[in-house]
Design brief:
Strand order of the largest sheet of chain A: 4-3-2-1-5-6
Number of domains of chain B: 1
Structural class of chain A: alpha+beta
Largest interface: A-B, 44 and 39 residues
CATH architecture of the largest domain in chain A: Roll
GO biological process, one term (chain B): tRNA processing
Strand order of the largest sheet of chain B: 1-2-3
InterPro entries (chain B): Rpr2/Snm1/Rpp21
CATH superfamily of the largest domain in chain A: Ribonuclease P/MRP, subunit p29
Largest sheet of chain B: 3 strands, antiparallel
CATH topology of the largest domain in chain A: SH3 type barrels
Structural class of chain B: alpha+beta
Radius of gyration of chain A: 25 Å
Oligomer: heterodimer
Order of helices and strands of chain B: HHHEEE
Order of helices and strands of chain A: HHHHHHHHEEEEEEH
Family (chain B): Belongs to the eukaryotic/archaeal RNase P protein component 4 family.
Number of helices of chain B: 3
Number of helices of chain A: 9
Pfam family, one (chain B): Rpr2
Protein name (chain B): Ribonuclease P 21 subunit
Shape of chain A: extended
Chain lengths: 221, 112
């Protein structure tokens, strides 16, 4: 009985008062499940039991030291934290390519807004200058040429951009990790194709926004 | 206000990253890491180019783990009362608390 109450959509009077959009039942279900998973803590307890049963527990007595560490400011950004949390865990198997299509739409609109036009208008130079500073998260990348022939032809939506690597999810819901060096990527918007030489792009996504690009060295694979 | 051209593109990029983080979370409420990655990118860019962000945007980002805070999905919001009224937002992933004062007449540093 109580379970039915959790899944009931908001009554109409409340919708008007709160100014909230009622969600479709599918999305609401996904949200409730995520929330419940976050609130419940069981798996950790099982781990504790295992640990206690296999290892010897030391019982000791230490004098309680006076610890006064009041840091009101937000500390953090340790390497430990980054290792623990930031990168992707095994979720892409959990996720489908279709879930990222809205992200790609958003990217397309962003790029069109940034460049302010389609192919026939401004010359490619201006567009390329803007592309250098632009963000590629959510773009559909294709590997055109590469030193390693098995990479050629891979294409998918860019999920994360690291210093030397692109992380892409292909149409078969596979996470591919493609190194930037010695590869040429093609980005396509509205018929405007731009080739990106990965070797020149070996910077963190945030760093690239501040970087001034100079013409250095040959453009070869 | 006359914005310099480089900054305008950078602001557009920041805005896009913020919207992308929201979009990703809307599609899959369990995938907090990708939203966190985008917000981290956003913070790095703002730091590198020394760009000012609006407080309403900064309030929805966790300072420690850089995840996007949405009350109900990634963060918990509680009201506290100590003579003045506080709203305490707690990030669910790193446990960092954010205390905001409830003062309806508060005006930000909108214009110096």
């Amino acid at each position: 009985m109580e379970e039915g109450l959790v899944r009931v959509p908001i009554p109409r009077e409340l919708v008007d008062v709160l100014g909230v959009e009622p969600q479709s039942s599918f999305k609401a279900k996904a949200f409730t499940e995520a929330f419940l998973k976050n609130s419940i803590q069981q798996p950790r307890r099982h781990d504790l039991k295992n640990m206690l049963s296999h290892k010897a527990v030391i019982l000791g007595y230490r004098r309680p030291k006076k610890e006064r560490r009041k840091s009101a400011k937000a500390r953090g950004l340790n390497a430990r934290q980054k290792r623990e949390l930031k990168v992707f865990q095994i979720k892409p198997e959990h996720q489908r390519y279709q879930l990222f299509l809205p992200l790609h739409e958003l990217w397309r609109r962003y790029i069109i807004d940034l460049c302010g036009g389609l192919k026939p208008t401004s010359n490619p130079q201006v567009v390329q200058q803007k592309l250098l500073k632009a963000d590629f998260h959510g773009a559909i990348l294709t590997v055109v040429r590469s030193k390693c022939p098995s990479y050629v032809g891979t294409s998918g939506i860019l999920l994360q951009e690291f210093k030397h690597v692109f992380k892409i999810i292909t149409r078969d819901d596979k996470l591919k990790v493609i190194p930037k060096r010695n590869s040429v990527f093609a980005v396509e918007i509205n018929g405007f194709v731009s080739h990106i030489y990965g070797s020149k792009f070996e910077y963190r996504a945030g760093e690239r926004a501040a970087k001034k690009f100079k013409v250095k060295g040959t453009i070869d694979l | 206000m006359a914005l310099h051209l480089k900054d305008k593109e950078a602001y557009q990029r920041l805005n896009y990253l913020y919207q992308a983080a929201h979009c990703v979370l809307a599609q899959n409420p369990e995938n907090v890491e990708l939203a966190r990655f985008y917000c981290f990118s956003q913070k790095t860019i703002a730091k590198r180019l020394v760009l000012r962000q609006d407080p309403s945007v900064k309030r929805t980002l966790c300072k420690r783990c850089c995840s996007l805070l949405i009350p109900g999905v990634t963060a918990t919001t509680r009201q506290k009362r100590n003579k003045t009224r506080f709203t305490v937002m707690r990030c669910l992933s790193c446990g960092q608390r954010k205390t905001l004062l409830n003062n309806p007449d508060y005006c930000l540093w909108a214009d110096r």
